[in-house]
Amino acid sequence: MEDKFIYFDHASTTPVKPEVLEAMLPYFTHKFGNASSIYSIGRESKKAIEEARDKVAAAIGAQPREIFFTGSGSESDNWAIKGVAYSNKSKGNHIITTAIEHHAVLHTCQYLESDGFEVTYLPVDENGLITAEQVRAAIKPTTILITVMFANNEIGTIQPIAEIGSIAREKGIYFHTDAVQAIGNIDIKVNDMNIDLLSLSAHKFYGPKGVGALYVRKGVKLASYLHGGAQERGRRASTENIAGIVGMGKAIELASANIEAYNKKLVDLRDRTIDEITKKVPFIKLNGDRNKRLPGNVNFSFQYIEGESLLLMLDLKGIAASSGSACTSGSLDPSHVLLAIGLPHEIAHGSLRITFGEQNTHQDVDYLMEVLPMIVGRLREMSPLYEALANKA
Length: 393
Fold this sequence. Notes:
One of its GO terms (molecular function) is metal ion binding. It is a single chain. By secondary structure, the chain is α/β, with parallel strands linked by helices. Helix content is 40%, strand content 13%. The chain has 2 domains: 18-257, Aspartate Aminotransferase, domain 2 (3-Layer(aba) Sandwich), CATH 3.40.640; 259-391, Aspartate Aminotransferase, domain 1 (Alpha-Beta Complex), CATH 3.90.1150.10. It has helices at 18-24, 40-60, 73-87, 103-113, 132-138, 161-171, 242-257, 259-280, 307-316, 336-340, 345-348, 362-381, 384-392; strands spanning 6-7, 67-70, 94-98, 118-122, 143-147, 174-178, 197-201, 212-216, 284-286, 297-302, 319-320, 351-355. α1 (18-24) packs antiparallel against α7 and α5 (132-138) packs parallel to α6 (161-171).
């Protein structure tokens, strides 16, 4: 193992910023009071929660009372989808989503199918995009929810959220978006985009793990998710994760204040990396739309190699990257996202996702381009398919 370490997996998780940790620390020690208590340190905790709620609301253009804290982005997705489904089943049982959603959405929809709901999974094009007209065409009299992720966690493709939201609003159908990858990378204002429910997670934008939030537009009919206490205005019971919530508030405040400069930096690193890999490595495919993609996302498939071997050899060179979603990296099956955009299994298996963050530099890209072509070449030398291609040439 080399001493060098470069982290290229910010879509999986980010480090906690020092300012965020500093804001959190008092709530582990002398400000540890339960926010449901009426004595002074309990009131301090309650005030800290509400200040964090204000910050999350301000970041997405919402009202503080429309923000509910959860334990994760996955929990937020579950609550939004199940909550709308069960609260509105007297109106219908049909849900529209896409084939490339995070499993927190897909598995939730599949669970609802087992309980009598009908789900339409819209196919995507070769870049992972759907159109607003696809959504319009899929709507039925029984449709009660449209759930489309803002930006894909693997290939970075950004969907036409505002247009979809406009159609949903026109038809009187609730619209949820999983914005876990987008918050902190894209400036989102829920009212401008006709979003009714939005999921986010702190650890994707330099906050702590184990805390998320769900935006619920005022007037949305949504069942409570956890029962047993009056926390979150009676809609999600359990003693609040005060330190985590405070950290989330600080992290989203910092992200919102710096989003323009941060995006510019990530786009620069992203575009240079795409150009360099395209020039220096043959038999590759860029996955996701070239322009309608997250600022820091690069995803390539490399023919004739296995993604897992590529990741292990990059790790030996001090580079941490991913072959797709961290939530499914233990699976031997190829990514459902890459299959949905039309890649055959053998090419989908050879994918590499690089996602940039605040600490990455052009020197990091230089190092990547120093080692990546060499590693790909070495792995292809061990591939019988590549050897047959070379002999044929």
